[in-house]
Amino acid sequence: MEIVIDIDAEEPLFAQLMAEIKRAVSAGGINPGDALPSIRQLANDLNLNNKTVAKAYQLLERDKVIITKGYRGTFVHPDARKNMDFDLNAWVAGQINQTINACREKGATDSEIRIAFANIMQNKPTAGE
């Protein structure tokens, strides 16, 4: 598996790493069940910070593209190719967009929406609770 990371690109390094692993899975360069390098090994190979690789692995595991089996290592998920079709970020953006549009239809201002969103994200009570 060849991974190319461009440190000068605008895209974050962890996102580039995720895309490269997904590309390798899609192209058949790595297959379901194949072992991936450890976080430390991959970070050393690519001259990246361990935390960058760990973040990419964590998000790939969340998306069920890879699976970590404790001390046995990290592997390509059995359903990796199928699971790569779902874009969680696009889904979240779509959900938020629908909610914002509904709020605007009821007459809420952008400022009111931002304040409510910030309060909810910080688990602060909102009016009416």
UniProtKB/TrEMBL annotation:
One of its GO terms (molecular function) is DNA-binding transcription factor activity. Keywords: DNA-binding, Transcription, Transcription regulation. PROSITE patterns: HTH_GNTR. Residues 11-79 form the HTH gntR-type domain. Pfam families: GntR. CDD domains: WHTH_GntR (cd07377). It comes from the Bacteria. This is Regulatory protein, gntR family.
